[in-house]
Amino acid sequence: MAKFAVLQTFYASSSWRNFRLGLIAERGNRCERCAHIIAKPIDIIGHHKIELTPENVQDHTISLNPERVELVCSDCHNQEHRRFGYQSKKSVYLVYGPPLAGKKTLVRQQMRRGDIIVDMDRLYEAVSGLPAYDKPDGLFGNVIGLHSLLIDNIRTRLGKWGNAWVIGGYAERFKRDRLADDLGAELVFCEASRDECLNRLATDEQLRHRQDEWVKYIDKWFEQYRG
Known about the structure:
Blueprint: H1 2-11, H2 14-27, E1 45-48, H3 60-63, E2 69-72, H4 74-80, E3 92-96, H5 103-110, E4 116-119, H6 120-128, H7 140-155, E5 164-168, H8 173-183, E6 186-189, H9 194-202, H10 211-224
Parallel strand pairs: 3-5, 3-6, 4-5
Antiparallel strand pairs: 1-2
Helix pairs in contact: 6-7, 9-10
């Protein structure tokens, strides 16, 4: 409840009210998503492109930044936040490609708060408490068990997550296509050449002590990959 109190205080403030009215005076009363005319100013919603939280609401480069606020109608706003009839519209994306192709970066750029991400690297971090890429072999059974459970949740659409992102190498086409069919997922390929991956490896500070190990991972992916 404390979270909602902080946000309610912001939305009730004169700073926000004046900011919103200024945007309406500047942009007019047309929804910036669907172009629908909104007759009453009170029905025009100021939607933050970066969802406000107690941690960022006082950062006015986010909460009071015209470039990060859209004027939308209630229907578009509900669709954005997956409320009132839009909850069941879940999309699943299987993001694949060679090591260091930028899969995690792509997902970070495209995901929204409330999405679910299934990534073996992140699961290892969560279970072990160790830095990224340090994966004790003895924990593999536990991590793959969590991975399988989350995949089952996505398959059955269990939970209140928004969209799902499954990240992995998936070099073998048959296994990749079978998993995508099983999940009803859209395939998203992060394309990168072997040389590009090796160049990124050479400049990755986190992997500076694991260069030989990761060269093998990269080579193995390209040996197995079938487009």
